[in-house]
Amino acid sequence: MFRRLYKTCFFAFFVVQGLFITAQNDPKKISEFDIHSYKPEPHDRIIFEVNHTGWLNMPHNLKETATSGGVNILLYFDYPLGNSHFSFAWGAGLSSHNIHGKINLVYQVDSLHQQTVFTSVEPRYTPYKINRIGFKVIEVPLEFRFRTRTPYQFKLMAGVKVGYVVQTFKKVFDADGKVKVFDIFGVNLLRYGVQLRMGWEQLHLSVFYALSEVFEKGKGSPGIIPFSIGLAYTPRISLGNGAH
């Protein structure tokens, strides 16, 4: 389902860009309300990120492995602040956040009502080939941007992201076979935090630190914070009055 959703959104990005170009070539469609005219030289519309992902403050000194990773796809609209080096941007995106390692999610059950009441993060001692905890998140990012006016442009982008967790799962492949379980109990569906991207031209270092915890209060191990660090790529897409 979500693989199809990623493909659909990716296709939609380029359909929207095509509509912008069509409007640009038709003077009758240009007005002060056209998105294409809001910035003389729009840049950094689409951003692809490949990250190492992890959880901070896990109990029992647990750590994710180096193979933990995720992919983000973001579409932005960029508004310049006068003639300065600064602009404000907002957008929408899809992200995946996967945790690998010797991490076990143990459900505690209310024996009286036979209902799961708590998810505990514990060490996993039995051997495995795959042990993955995954999240899919729809996000709305807001950020301020700084760009130099030099031949090789330096960029600094800082802001926040607010997201909603639309899917959670745990996938295990061990001696007993393959098992994939969806809807992890107690997950905090609201995810928000601060983000930073910094680099030159189209390649940047990307960092995200959540201000929300993985689990809701009283429903899972407390204090666990998601984070990611990786590389971001922004294709050269210049649309609008200053396109070249």
Task: Report what the structure shows.
The protein is built from one helix and eleven strands. It has an eight-stranded antiparallel barrel. The protein has a two-stranded antiparallel ribbon with strand order 4-5. The longest helix is centred in the N-terminal third of the chain and has 23 residues, at 2-24. A hairpin with a 4-residue loop joins strand 4 and strand 5 (115-123). Helices cover 9% and strands 52% of the residues. Mean pLDDT is 85; it is low at 1-40 and 239-244. It has one domain (56-233). It has 244 residues and is mostly beta strands. The radius of gyration is 21 Å and the shape is elongated.
Helix content: under 10%
User: What string gives the helices and strands in order?
Assistant: HEEEEEEEEEEE
Number of strands: 11
Distance between the amino and carboxyl termini: 38 Å
Number of helices: 1
Question: Structural class of the helices, strands and pairings?
Answer: mainly beta
Tally the structural domains.
1
User: Unreliable stretches, pLDDT < 50, 5 or more residues?
Assistant: 1-40, 239-244
Task: Provide mean pLDDT, rounded.
Answer: 85
Main sheet record: 8 strands, antiparallel, barrel
Strand content: over 45%
Strand order of the largest sheet: 1-2-3-6-7-9-10-11
Shape: elongated
Report the C-alpha radius of gyration, rounded: 21 Å
